[in-house]
Design a protein that fits this description.
CATH superfamily of the largest domain: Medium-chain alcohol dehydrogenases, catalytic domain
Number of domains: 3
Radius of gyration: 26 Å
Strand content: 15-25%
Oligomer: single chain
CATH topology of the largest domain: Quinone Oxidoreductase, Chain A, domain 1
Number of helices: 19
CATH class of the largest domain: Alpha Beta
CATH architecture of the largest domain: Alpha-Beta Complex
Distance between the termini: 18 Å
Helix content: 25-40%
Length: about 575
C-alpha cells in the first residue's frame, strides 16, 4: 500500500481540479472568505516565467492584525479596492514547486521545496507577499516576476542540505524577524551624501574633535558653534560639501529649518554639543530623517526626560547615540553600539508568553554565550505557564536561570522582582514584545548602565514615550528596534535550524486545516494559544486544535509529539498520512 505521506512529498498524485482559498475583501474577519467559508477557484497553468506552487504550511502572524483592522487603508495596500481586487493573508509560508515555466527550468524543478521571504520590494516600493501580493491562504497558486525578479532578485529560498518539516520551514520567517532584531540595523556612521545638523551652545568653549566621518555629508548646517569648531568643520569636510549657518534658532524655528534645508524630510544626522535642555532635544528629535541618527555629546545631564517616537525606532530605524567625551565620532561604530544580548548578563523579556515573546526567550536560552539569567514577564498566567513548560527544561539543560513573573498576580513590581533576584541590579537587556507605549516607557526604566532596549513589537509611528535620554550619552544605553527581516536573515535561520542551533518547530502551539484558517486568525488575534497557530492548506477538513488537546481526539498524531506536547516532524508526517486523503485530489 502506498504511503500517503510519500505520495504527498514526491508529488505522485493527480492535481485536483480546484484550489481552496481565503480571499480578503475588506477590513474585519467577516470580510475574509464568503460568509465565513473559503472559496474555490481553478488551478492555473504557469506561463513561461512562472511557477505553480503548492502551499504546504502557513503560520498565523500578529502583524496581520493591522491589515485585518485597516483593510484597504493599510499602507501596503495603497488604497486598493479589495471588493474588486482582493488580497490574501498568509506571509509565513512554505511552498513546493509543482510545475515550472520554460524560462525557469534551469533554476527550479518540480518537488523543490521553498520558503518565501515576504518583505518584497519593487523599485524601492513595498509589495509584500500576504499584503500587496496575495499570500499563502490558498492551496495552489502562481508566482512569477512579482516574487522571483524583484529588487533583491528572487524572494524564495530553496530548502537544501537537510530535512525540515513544513511547519518548521514556514516558521523560518518569523524566526528571521527575531534573529534580525539582534543584528545591527542602525546606521553607525554619518551618512555619505547626507545632510548633517550640528547644534552647539554659544557659551560652550569645549574643544570638540571629529576624528572621522565629517567628510561624509554633502550639506552641513551649523548652529551656535564656536569659531574653532567651525574652522574644524571647514578643514575636515568634503571639498564639495555645502556649509550653512543658522544661529540663534528658537524651538519654533526648527520646523522651518527642516523645510528650508531638507524639504521636510528631516536631517540624516543631528549632533548636539553640550546641550542640557530636554525641551530642545524633544523638539530636535522630531527632525530625524528615515534611518537617521541623533548624537548627543556632553558631560552634563539634560534637565529632564525627553519625548521620543517609539514607532520610528521600530519602523524607521532612527538611532540614538552619544558619548561624554570630546570626540563626536566616538559615538558611532560597532564597538560602542552593541546589538546582541550581553554574554552572561540578565535579560527581561516583556510579553514573553506570546508567540514572538516565546521565540525571544528560546533564542536567548539556546544562543551560544547568551544571558545567564532570564526574567520572562507576562500578564497571562496560562501563556506564562506554557512558556515555562516548554522552555524550562531547555534552560535547565543549558544552565540558564529562567524565572517567570506575572505582574498581575504578584504583590510587587517587575522592577522590585528584578532587583530582588538580580543582586539589587537592573537588567543588562530588555526586550519588549507588546505594542504598548506605556509599557515600553515603563520597561525602559528596568535597564542598568550599558544596557540595551529592544522594541520588537511595533507601535504606530507617532507613539511618544518619555525616556531619560541621559542614559544614552552618559551611560551608553542602546535603543534599538527592527521591523521584518531580510533574505539573509532567513537564510541564517535555515542554516542554524539544519545545524541544530535553533528549533523553530517548538513555537507551534496549535494546528488546523484549511477550513480552520479563519478560526486560526481569530485565535491568533485573541491570544488563545501561547505559541504559533499553523495552518496546513492541503488538509481542508481538520479543525483548529491545540497540541495539548490532540491526545483526546487524534491519538495517532499525539503519540508522535515530543516532550511537553512539542510539534515534531514525525507528528506532521502522521497528520498528512492520515488526513490528506484522495478526496482532496
Amino acid at each position: 500500500m502506498t504511503d500517503p505521506y510519500q505520495e504527498y512529498q514526491s508529488l505522485s498524485y493527480t492535481l485536483p481540479e480546484k484550489t481552496i482559498l481565503w480571499n480578503m475583501y475588506g477590513a474585519g474577519l467577516e470580510n475574509i472568505g464568503l460568509n465565513g467559508k473559503p472559496e474555490t477557484g481553478p488551478i492555473p497553468e504557469p506561463a513561461d516565467d512562472q511557477l505553480l506552487v503548492r502551499v504546504d504550511a502557513v503560520g498565523m502572524c500578529f502583524s496581520d492584525v493591522k491589515l485585518i483592522n485597516q483593510g484597504s487603508a493599510h499602507p501596503k495596500l495603497y488604497n486598493r479596492n479589495l471588493k474588486e481586487d482582493p488580497t490574501r493573508l498568509g506571509h509565513e509560508a512554505t511552498l513546493t514547486v509543482i510545475k515550472v515555466g520554460e524560462k525557469l527550468a534551469d533554476q527550479y524543478h518540480p518537488g523543490q521545496r521553498l520558503v518565501l521571504q515576504p518583505d518584497i520590494y519593487h523599485n524601492n516600493r513595498s509589495t509584500a507577499y500576504g499584503y500587496t501580493i496575495p499570500g499563502g491562504l490558498i492551496q495552489y497558486h502562481l508566482i512569477g516576476d512579482e516574487v522571483l525578479n524583484a529588487d533583491a532578485g528572487s524572494y524564495v529560498i530553496p530548502i537544501e542540505g537537510g530535512e525540515l518539516s513544513y511547519a518548521e520551514s514556514a516558521l523560518t520567517e518569523p524566526w528571521a524577524c527575531v534573529v534580525a532584531s539582534y543584528t545591527q540595523r542602525r546606521r553607525l556612521t554619518p551618512k555619505t551624501g547626507g545632510t548633517m545638523w550640528i547644534m552647539g551652545v554659544p557659551e560652550d568653549q569645549q574643544a570638540y574633535s571629529f576624528s572621522s566621518g565629517l567628510d561624509a555629508p554633502a550639506k552641513i548646517v551649523l548652529s551656535d558653534v564656536s569659531p574653532a569648531f567651525k574652522a574644524l568643520v571647514m578643514e575636515k569636510k568634503s571639498p564639495a560639501a555645502q556649509v550653512l549657518e543658522y544661529d540663534g534658532l528658537s524651538l519654533d524655528d526648527f520646523t522651518q529649518l527642516n523645510q528650508s534645508v531638507c524639504a521636510g524630510a528631516g536631517f540624516d544626522d543631528i549632533i548636539l554639543l553640550g546641550h542640557t535642555s530636554a525641551a530642545l532635544v524633544t523638539h530636535a528629535v522630531k527632525l530625524i530623517a528615515f534611518r537617521g541618527t541623533f548624537n548627543i555629546v556632553g558631560v552634563q545631564p539634560l534637565d529632564g526626560p525627553v519625548l521620543i517616537d517609539a514607532g520610528r525606532i521600530h519602523y524607521h530605524y532612527t538611532a540614538y547615540y552619544g558619548n561624554s567625551g570630546t570626540d563626536i565620532a566616538a559615538s558611532y561604530g560597532e564597538t560602542r553600539n552593541r546589538c546582541d544580548l550581553l554574554a552572561g548578563g540578565s535579560l527581561v523579556a516583556v510579553g514573553a508568553g506570546g508567540p514572538m515573546g516565546q521565540m525571544h526567550v528560546q533564542r536567548a536560552i539556546e544562543m551560544e554565550n547568551g544571558p545567564q539569567r532570564i526574567i520572562a514577564s507576562d500578564v497571562d498566567q496560562a501563556r506564562l505557564s506554557a512558556l515555562g513548560e516548554f522552555a524550562g527544561p531547555i534552560a535547565e539543560a543549558r544552565g540558564v536561570e529562567l524565572l517567570l513573573f506575572n505582574p498581575m498576580a504578584a504583590n510587587r513590581s517587575l522592577q522590585d522582582f528584578l532587583q530582588e533576584v538580580n543582586a539589587g541590579q537592573l537588567a543588562d537587556d530588555v526586550v519588549v514584545s507588546v505594542p504598548s507605549g506605556p509599557l515600553m516607557e515603563a520597561s525602559y526604566r528596568l535597564l542598568r548602565p550599558n544596557g540595551m532596549f529592544v522594541l520588537f513589537a511595533g507601535v504606530a509611528i507617532g507613539t511618544a514615550i518619555t525616556v531619560d535620554i541621559n542614559d544614552v550619552f552618559l551611560n551608553n544605553l542602546q535603543l534599538t528596534g527592527t521591523s521584518g527581516s531580510t533574505l539573509d536573515d532567513q537564510r541564517l535561520v535555515i542554516e542554524k535550524t539544519i545545524d541544530g542551533q535553533l528549533s523553530p518547530i517548538l513555537s507551534v502551539a496549535a494546528i488546523g486545516g484549511m477550513d480552520a484558517a479563519l478560526d486560526g486568525l481569530e485565535a491568533m488575534m485573541t491570544g488563545r494559544y501561547a505559541g504559533k497557530v499553523m495552518i496546513f492548506p492541503q488538509i481542508p477538513r481538520f479543525p483548529l486544535i491545540g497540541l495539548n488537546e490532540l491526545a483526546g481526539q487524534y491519538p495517532e498524531i499525539a503519540e508522535k509529539l515530543g516532550p511537553n506536547n512539542a510539534w515534531t516532524f514525525e507528528a506532521e508526517k502522521e497528520l498528512i498520512r492520515h488526513y490528506w486523503d484522495k478526496e482532496y485530489r
